[in-house]
Amino acid sequence: MSKYNHCESVYWVFTQLCNDKCDHCYNLSGPQGARISEAECLQIIDNLPDRIDRLILSGGEPLADKKLLFAILDGIQARYAKSTQVMLQTNGDLLSGEILDVLIEKGVSRFDIASIDRFHKHAGSRLMELAELFESRGVNGDDKDPLIEKDSYLVKSHPLSWGYWGATDDMWLGGNWARGRALEKNIWLRDPNHNFCKILSGGIGFLSGAENIPQEISIQLWRINPCCPGTYKAMGDARVEKVADVLARVAQSPVFQKINAGDPLGMGESIGISREFAEGRNAELQNVCLWCDEFFRDYFDMETMQSRFEAENGVDFKVKLP
Ligand code: SF4
Ligand code: SF4
Asked: Which atom of ligand 1 is nearest to the CA of 180?
C-alpha cells in the first residue's frame, strides 16, 4: 500500500448547505450554500485512501443535508466498517434524539458542537439541552478534545463522546480566516505575523504529520486541500482522482514540502521566489493565506506543478525575478 493510502485524518466538508449564515463562515455556507450530489459523494468515498484513522464530516451544517449525510455514513460503513473513527462537526441546532439514534447506528462516535460563540445565531443556547440529549444516549461529554490531542485519535476503540467549542477572537484556529464570508464581511484576521499554516487546520503536516498535529488533509466539497482554509486552486478533484495519487504527486514538489513544514513564506524558493520577497508581500497583504493565494495564482501552476513562467514560456522563472 502506498504511504498516502493511509491518512491519519480527513476533514470533509461534504455540503455548504446550512441553516445559519454566520459572518465568520470561511466557506460561504448558508441556506443557499453549494452542494454536491449523492453520486459525487459516493465517488469521493471510493477515491479516499484505503485506510483513514479518523474522518471528520462537516459543513455547512451536516444535518441540514441529512439525507446526504446518511447516505455518506452508509458508504463509509460499507467501505471502512469500524476501522475509521467517524466524527461529526455540527452546530447542534437541528439535532434531535431520533436523529442522534440514527447517527450512532450509522457509526458516528464523536460529536463536536462547533457553534458556542458570539458569531452563531444560537450561540450555545441549546447547550444544556444537548448535554441532556447526549447523556440520555450514553455519549460521554468528559473526553479530551480528540481534534487537538493527537493521543486521542490514535486510540483504537471509539467510545461515544461529544464536546463543544466555538470561535473566539484568539481561538485555536488563530482568528478568522481570510476566506469566504469572513473575507466578504471584512472580519478576517489582519496579522502578517500569525502563521495559520503552522497550526492545526493549517497545511503543516498534511503529508507527514507534525508534532502533536495529525497528518490531515481537507476536502472542501470535492476539492482536495492541504489545509482547511484551502489553497487558491485545489490540489486535485476527489470525484475523479484517488486522494492517495494526488498526495503522492504533490509530495514530490518542494513547494508542497514547504507547506508540509508549515512554511508558506518559503514555498517559492525552489522556483526562485525568495523568502524576502514573500515576506514583503505577506506584510502588505496582512495574512499569510492571502500570500498563498497570490503565489498559486501568479507564480505557480497547480496543474503542471511548475512555476507559471516556466509553464507558460518554457523558460526558467528564476532569471526573470526581481
Ligand atoms: S460557521 Fe458553521 S453554522 Fe455558521 S454558516 Fe458556516 S457552516 Fe453554518
Ligand atoms: S498558507 Fe496556504 S497552505 Fe497554508 S493554511 Fe493558508 S491557504 Fe493553507
From this structure: 6
Rounded to the nearest angstrom, the distance between the alpha carbon of 76 and the centre of ligand 2 is 28
Which residues constitute the domain of residue 11?
Answer: 3-245
**pLDDT category of residue 1 using cuts at 50, 70 and 90:** low
Query: Which residues pair with residue 88 across a beta bridge?
Result: 57, 111
Convert the pLDDT of each residue in 286-308 to its tens digit: 999 999 999 999 999 999 999 98
CA of 161 to the centre of ligand 2 (A): 30
Ligand 1 midpoint to CA 30 (Å): 7
Are 214 and 258 contained in the same domain? no
Identify whether the C-beta of residue 291 lies closer than 8 Å to the C-beta of residue 264. yes
How would residue 126 be classed by pLDDT, with cut points 50, 70 and 90? confident
Instruction: Out of 18, 27, 58, give the residue to mutate to test ligand 1, the one with the largest number of ligand atoms within 8 Å of its CB.
Output: 18
Element housing 55 (H / E): strand 51-58
Judged against a pLDDT cut of 60, whether residue 172 lies above it is answered with no
Q: Answer yes or no: do 223 and 269 share one domain.
A: no
Rounded to the nearest whole angstrom, what is the distance from the C-alpha of residue 254 to the centroid of ligand 2?
15
C-alpha cell at 9: 485524518
Q: Which atom of ligand 2 is nearest to the CA of 196?
A: 5
Output the pTM of the full model: 0.93
Same domain, 164 and 269: no
* Cβ-Cβ contacts under 8 Å for 88 (sequence gap 6 or more): 56, 57, 58, 62, 103, 108, 110, 111, 112
